[in-house]
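Review session, final week

We close the course with one last complete record, chosen because it touches almost every idea we covered. It is ATP-dependent DNA helicase, a protein from Sesamum angolense with 427 residues. Go through it on your own first, then we will talk.
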Amino acid sequence: MNLFDSDKFTKEYNHERKIEVSEADLLSIEKLNDDQRHAFNIITEKIYSSSSGTYFIDGPGGSGKTFLYRALLADVRSRGYIALAVATSGVAAALLPGVVVFGGDYRQIAPVVVGGKKEDTIDASFASSLLSRNFNKLSLRENMRAKDDPMFTEFLMRVGNGTETHVLDDRIEIPNNMILPFVESHKSLCDLIDLVFPCLDLFLTNPLLVINRSILAPKNDCVDEINEILIDKFPGELKHFVSLDKTRDPSLQGQYEDFLNSITISGLPPHILTLKVGCPIMLLRNINPIEGLCNGTRLICRGLGEKVIHAEIATGHFKGKQTFIPKIPLESPDKRQCPIPFTRTQFPVKACFAMTINKAQGQTLDFVGVYLREPVFSHCQLYVALSRAKTGNSVKVLIQPPTIEDKVVTFIRNVVYKEILYLANQE
């Protein structure tokens, strides 16, 4: 197979050749800590000796994996070499010659196996793959995100490793300084919202100051409830955008159209999308990854038209870039969520004052509210939620229900599949 026969590869290749290396990225090389420097030296030595190699950079949340990637890309590109930054994909890795670098954290969200059990999730993990044994493992141990709060860092590692003391079954106790006292369901949720977003007007005057504040919850129904409350409180005029829902079998359209209009499905925008100018939104599809428009990209609404949304990318390498998002046809997911296959034509976005814990993976936030109306349910969800913050004082957890046998508690479920961690540590 000729690698350059692929139109997609050629597009990404041409894009990469045009990238200008910023001075900030080049200077980041001098700021690498000892573990980052060790990995950097090993990988670049392999690259510049024209050898092949495969590496896996393993590090907990906040250990500076992205910082290291940027330093590697900057160094390689500044010397005239081609460096392709791609999403994790076995296919992509198989196609690319030279040195391939993967990275991740086995303490973070495991692969989602629809309808699967614990054993299926473990089997789907990269740690279970025979390929993982062929990677040279490089470890980042220092938490750069939370380095100013060593007690918080140690607590996070115990949570992620599943070694924090269990006080009841699989429940652990959360430090008091991270707990938001529970009063009553609605009032307590409003208290959490006010704590995370004390001044919504800042989204209009200086959105970059508040875009990195968010409320996280395990499931979409809680996230949608919080976003509805906040979009209503947000200053400005409400705009409603109605989707066009069509069954794939035209003969079923009349029978099921009202039903399809009434449902909200994970991964799809709602039938009636409610937004305001200035509010934060999140993309739900990969529209143009090369230009920063990926599933999970957060943006600020700058204008709302009937056929297009004018938005500004709010985070990451493309922060500040203006873009326009059209309505597009979106296919319904598997039959477990909806038995009737259909297409929803809608803007591929949702409001994102709040987001699911899974969507927050990989992000650093200035202030985090964790809303646990229901307990976490998958591998290391609690660890991912808590580790988005930089200090213990910049995260607040609201637990509901907060009582067991009429006693107020500050402990919650912590799900850790130690089998994955064990496999990951095998040489």
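Two points worth writing down before the exam:
The radius of gyration is 23 Å.
The first strand starts at residue 53 and ends at 58.
Good luck, everyone.
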